[in-house]
Design goal:
The chain is an alpha/beta fold and about 325 residues long. About 35% of the residues lie in helices and about 15% in strands.
């Protein structure tokens, strides 16, 4: 009998997908006390279905029958990719299952920042009706949105932004111009070109050694002081200290952030003291509908690996 180890809570829809297979044993390991105990539990696992638990080289090496690590998401910085590659074990993600939800959250940030939702709400609650004359809000119509990363989420954001009348620029050295695009976008050849032109920067790149601190103090310095920064990708792609400093000193007008270098965000973090930043606790993909979609795909990836028919489109490149 094949075995699937689940390291993090899974929605009933995902468990139901696994339960349809009487030849597959499901073992819950959410109570594993750490790396050593989890390594012991996966020794006979054919698949590991993981959320945010760290899958270390020790855990991978202990799973002697392992056929796949299935990530219930699209980011994979908590999984040691090199250890998987050494054993030629695939890493599967959920593809487009969360793209619409993350794209909607990105647009929520863009619109809330443009329309200065928090400032207007606070003014009404404080009885400051005259704040309406400040005209602090701006339109997104005819504004330039710069997408750094043009994978599934970036493309979904582009489609929605174009519907609001925005001009969309894209920087992604790994994607050919117009590849997969269903909305009119213009590719730029350098990060600098997009940063100097944009009114909104939205980050959709994975966290890798190449993308860590991709947007730092030098990059923020060349942006318009009226620009906004949005990130629903991974903490660490935008340098938090540099962004906090730029926000505090008016070099960037505002930001919307769903991801952070350290999660939960530490008490007293500079972002929590700024009025021009919107924060959410890494929830862009955590709608009920999206959680169901992701967990069903993640479960199916485990079954497909056991059956030897994984969808290549859902695999993280091995090279």
């Amino acid at each position: 009998m094949s075995k699937v180890i689940i390291t993090d809570p899974l929605q009933p829809a995902g468990l139901d997908r696994l339960a349809q297979r009487p030849d597959v044993q499901v073992s819950l390991a959410m109570d594993a006390s750490g790396e050593d105990e989890l390594a012991e539990r996966v020794t006979d696992a054919d698949a590991i279905l993981v959320g945010l638990t760290r899958i270390t080289p020790k855990i991978i090496e202990s799973a002697r029958r392992l056929k796949v690590v299935s990530r219930r998401g699209v980011g994979y910085d908590n999984v040691d990719l090199e250890a998987l590659r050494r054993r030629q074990i695939p890493l599967a993600v959920v593809g487009t299952a969360n793209a619409a939800s993350v794209a909607e959250h990105t647009l929520f940030f863009i619109l809330a920042l443009a329309k200065q939702v928090i400032a207007y709400d606070h003014a009404v609650r404080a009885g400051n009706w005259q704040f309406r004359d400040s005209m602090a809000a701006v339109d997104v119509l005819d504004k330039t949105l710069f997408l750094v990363g043009f994978g599934r989420v970036g493309r979904a954001v582009a489609e929605r932004a174009v519907a609001f009348g925005m001009k969309v620029l894209v920087y992604d050295p790994l994607v050919k111009p117009a590849a997969g695009a269903r909305a009119p976008v213009d590719f730029v050849s350098t990060l600098h070109a997009g940063l100097t032109a944009c009114d909104f920067l939205s980050v959709h790149a994975p966290l890798t050694p190449e993308t860590r601190d991709l947007v730092g103090s030098e990059e923020l310095a060349i942006m318009k002081p009226t620009a906004f920064v949005v990130s629903t990708a991974r903490g660490g792609v935008v340098n938090e200290s540099a962004l906090a400093d730029a926000l505090a000193n008016g070099r960037i007008r505002g930001a919307g952030l769903d991801v952070f270098t350290q999660e939960p965000l530490p008490a007293g973090h500079p972002f929590t003291k700024l009025d021009n930043v919107l924060l959410s606790p890494h929830t862009a993909a955590l709608t009920r509908e999206c959680a169901d979609r992701m967990d069903v795909v993640a479960a199916q990836n485990c079954l497909d690996a056991i059956d030897g028919k994984l969808d290549p489109a859902l695999l993280v490149p091995n090279g």
